[in-house]
Target: NADP-dependent oxidoreductase domain-containing protein
Amino acid sequence: MSLTPRSFKLNTGASIPVIGFGAWAGRDPAIQAKATSWIFAAIQAGYRHLDTAWIYGTEKPVGDAIKASGVPREKLFVTTKLPWNHTKRVQWSIDQSLKNANLDYFDLYLMHWPHCVVHDEKEPRPRDPDGQLLLDDTGNFNETWAEMEKVLASGKVKAIGVSNFSIKTLEQLLTTASILPAANQVEMHPYLAQNDLLAFCRERGILVTAYAPTGYTVVREDTTIAEIAVKYGATPTQIILSWHVGRGTVVIPKSENIERQKENLGILVLQPEDTQRIDDLDRNQRVCNKPDEVGKVWGWTMDRLGW
Ligand SMILES: NC(=O)c1ccc[n+]([C@@H]2O[C@H](COP(=O)([O-])OP(=O)(O)OC[C@H]3O[C@@H](n4cnc5c(N)ncnc54)[C@H](OP(=O)(O)O)[C@@H]3O)[C@@H](O)[C@H]2O)c1
Model:
């Protein structure tokens, strides 16, 4: 298998490995309890880019796995994310994240969502009586970004970026930002290609990272993907991940399984006609953060999100 580029450049000049390892451990305590071991296995398998978040509860397992691996810190790229319930206490939150991971710095610090949520240290997803996320609309992401710029200046993180931002919210962010986000991490896969957002980010030098990059079974079981996989003697997931990297996006697949971790590192270069067939599968379909029965994603309408 011929390899595509192993890393892309951020607008800071730093290199970011194109395949990262997603460290979301789900909500099953049994899987969370084993997180250090499957993250350690991923580093052993060759991953050098780890994607965690305060809200995943895996900053500590990531830090523990790094220590156990013996891989020098400077050989790794580690991303974490500011949770929505800490948007008014950013300086405090980054110190918590560094302490959780027992690291001196993160390579990339993302604002996890554009939302500002009421701070409740025991419950990062507090709800109103209707079951909607308890938003704190006295805060806004422009102010939060200004605080993240101070984190960058402190040296505790090497780059700052955003996640779940659209063209609409990015444009709003850029009206006050002194520093351009280095990255925007969004849901992206062949059924949600987000061509306009990708072009917008590319034109401005904002690297896009695809989360839920495999598209789950919905996309992994697509018949066109299956046909292309047969042609290359590869698996459907390898074809999907190769498509992403071919269009210049970083991917962060997650797997607890060592064989699938290794499989997901096996990307290849697709021929233009196969890339086109996958491009044609786009249908603006979300598989991860989907709107609920009242059309909101975590309390924000699709219009407010710009999705
Ligand atoms: N910024 C955000 O708001 C946000 C939101 C969601 C996710 N993320 C990040 O993105 C990462 C990846 O997203 P994700 O976990 O939602 O989606 P994903 O990586 O596309 O899919 C993970 C699921 O696919 C399975 N899987 C992985 N590789 C496979 C393969 N080769 N064959 C068959 N099944 C495979 C995994 O099961 P096994 O573990 O059993 O292999 C798991 O159930 C997360 O870990 C997190 O770091 C960020």
